[in-house]
Specification:
The protein has one domain (11-343): Rhopdopsin 7-helix transmembrane proteins (Up-down Bundle). Helices cover 69% and strands 3% of the residues. It contains eleven helices and four strands. The strands form two sheets. The chain has a two-stranded antiparallel sheet. A two-stranded antiparallel ribbon has the order 3-4. Helix 1 packs antiparallel against helix 3 (61-80). The longest helix is centred in the middle third of the chain and has 39 residues, at 171-209.
Length: 344
């Protein structure tokens, strides 16, 4: 965001920033290229899941969450493919990217917390409908609340980085909204990390409490080894830029200016965010054999002009019939967690 790149007449949390630096134009070109690639990869996940919704998504809450993450990441990549723009295009880019970045974080947190609850408590926190009822209103409120104090979507330093928040009357308002979004991201990262820790401790507890639970621990580990890739990808792609932002704030408070080449390094680390959608796409295709088979079937029909609907065999799974949000004590942890792997 542009919160750390202020003009000579601006202040950052009351601290005067005496200079501003432009980013390397090569970074913008790399961003556009990565945005297009990320849009194609994440978009392919969206396409195959919607094209074969009944076979791949219906009745599978976890796959539904992955679909929502893919839609969000595709939208972010689309907006960032504009480059470092200005004017109306800047406002459009800011509105889309800010909304769907938060949406991606929310659905990732939902995916991880739901599976954590499922592994430990053998039931989910809520069903898919409730998840939508929670996430959409919160995100919409956060999206439009910035207009309350006169801020809007744009960029007060056009051409320096991706567009985000702006306020011509008071730049401090825009920086505050920018920092609030960073706090939201940091909270999402913390939740994901805590979920990983909880499941790890739970697995150790099972192993120590009763040696006979070794098979259960193995099943839990198999399921978690798949899903843990999603929050880990989020940490890898988002954490570096957050750490740099923290360093920038400390530098401003101590010296009154951002570190040298801060904008260039920040924009370079922002490119990692585009890798998030790409990584999730690779994880999805690597772990979901059924999705790969559906794509093979699709391309076979396209190139061979064969329109016959050939049914693909897929493994039966108890989780297909599980009423999410209700007690599932009738199912063993070993069978259900193993079947999660088949559905992810």
């Amino acid at each position: 965001m542009a919160a750390n790149d202020l003009s000579e007449d601006d202040y950052y949390y009351g601290v005067y920033v005496p200079y501003i630096e432009r980013t390397d134009p090569i970074i913008e070109k790399v961003q556009i290229a990565l945005s297009v690639l990320s849009m194609l990869m994440s978009g392919s996940v969206v396409f195959i899941l919607l094209y074969r919704y009944k076979q791949l998504v219906a009745g599978k809450s976890f796959v539904h969450y992955i679909l929502m993450i893919a839609i969000s990441d595709t939208s972010v990549a689309f907006s960032w493919s504009f480059g470092y723009t200005s004017g109306i295009a800047c406002s459009i880019q800011a509105f889309i990217s800010v909304f769907f970045l938060k949406m991606s974080w929310f659905w990732t947190v939902m995916l991880v917390t739901q599976l954590t609850s499922f592994v430990i408590r053998r039931r989910l926190l809520c069903n898919t409908s409730v998840a939508h009822f929670i996430i959409w209103p919160i995100n919409i409120i956060l999206q439009f609340i910035i207009f309350y104090n006169g801020s809007y979507y744009g960029n007060y330093t056009p051409g320096y980085d991706n567009c985000g928040y702006n306020d011509e009357l008071n730049v401090l308002h825009a920086t505050i909204w920018d920092e609030m979004q960073d706090i939201l991201l940091q909270c999402s990262l913390i939740v994901c990390i805590l979920c990983v820790i909880c499941v790890t401790i739970y697995s150790c507890y099972l192993k120590m409490a009763d040696p006979m639970t070794a098979a259960i621990v193995t099943a839990v580990s198999e399921a978690w080894s798949t899903v843990i890739l999603y929050p880990l990808s989020m940490v890898v792609c988002y954490l570096p830029d957050q750490v740099l932002g923290f360093i920038g704030v400390i530098s401003i408070q101590k010296t009154g200016r951002t570190p040298k080449h801060y904008v260039i390094v920040s924009n370079s680390l922002t490119l990692l965010i585009l890798l998030y959608g790409m990584l999730l796409s690779l994880i999805f295709y690597f772990k979901n054999k059924e999705a790969r088979l559906e794509y093979i079937k699709l391309f076979r029909n396209i190139f061979k002009r064969d329109n016959d609907d050939i049914e693909l065999s897929r493994p039966s799974s108890m989780i297909d019939h599980l009423e999410f949000g209700r007690p599932s004590s009738i199912l063993s942890i070993e069978s259900t967690t193993t079947n999660i792997v088949l559905n992810l």
